[in-house]
Amino acid sequence: MDKKIAVLIPCYNEAITIKKVVEDYKQALPNADIYVFDNNSTDGSADIAQEAGALIRHTYRQGKGFVIHEMFRDIDADVYLMVDGDDACNPEDAIALMTPVLEGGADMVTGDRLSSTYFTANTRRFHNAGNRLVRFLVNFLFKSRVRDIMSGTRAFSRHFVYSFPVMSGGFEIETEMTIHALDKKMLTAEMPINFRDRPPGSVSKLNTFRDGFKVLKTIFILFKDYRPMAFFGIFSVLTLLASIGLVIPVLIDYFVTGQVPRFPTLIVSVGFGILTVLSFAIGCILDTIKKYNDRNQLMLTKVMMKNIQK
């Protein structure tokens, strides 16, 4: 295979599993570069990974999003395979994700845990409901049919990596990746993969409620950023309905008595009407700016890709 493959493994205190993960991928992909990006581990994970044959990079800003930012900034390859260091995914399943990318049929392929064993193998409370909620919100707001939003097992093309502006610092990064690919209409695919829970002694770093709220916040922020016309359009419709609902009784009184006895209600109705106009105008302006920025980003990515090919 003449393609350059990089296996990217974000790592924070995974001493129990990281050796097995590195050795599994070295055996399955002997020509690939195996990178472990250590994120301030205190249990010797980096040393264990290095002894197993991985190339070590250190990321000092705490958070998975910061780790992926440095991964995409520092590593150049034809195809990138990102896997977690917790040994929750079978290497054969993960490697299969690269095929559509290598063949040029996808820019991002996601390992779909939720369609296989996740709901039965996962033992953490509320994670199943949280994954379902995130999936529903993203599919509803972005008119998509993605099955697994928060999977950490993914394969990427160089085009995706070079065009993705990493903004999140924590576990919400997978949600940002999915929404970015949807917004930019990239070629994407999903493949079911078998999920297995962490071995005894290995602890997840994801906080169910704190990180869950961050993910939900990220979804709505990206909805505003990526679809400003829809976001402010919804607000505009709500304020319009409020304005109409308040002004109708006032108009009825005026037509019946010729007087306007409820001036405060009329003033509030006019205020909602002004908000309606402002929201619609803001949505139009931001939508125009976004389209202009998208064109510039597309041209910049094309130039970068051509320079790499040369």
CATH architecture of the largest domain: Alpha-Beta Complex
Secondary-structure-based class equals alpha/beta
Strand content: 5-15%
Record the strand order, biggest sheet.
3-2-1-4-6-5-7
Total number of domains: 2
Span of the ends, CA to CA: 20 Å
| Strand element count | 7
Mean pLDDT rating? 90
As residue ranges, the low-confidence spans are none
* Helix run count: 12
Radius of gyration: 24 Å
The helix-strand sequence is: EHEHEHEHHEHHEHHEHHH
Shape category? elongated
Query: In CATH terms, what is the fold-level topology of the largest domain?
Result: Spore Coat Polysaccharide Biosynthesis Protein SpsA, Chain A
Q: Helix content range of the residues, please? A: 55-70%
The CATH class of the largest domain: Alpha Beta
Q: In the CATH hierarchy, what is the superfamily of the largest domain?
A: Spore Coat Polysaccharide Biosynthesis Protein SpsA, Chain A
Largest sheet: 7 strands, mixed
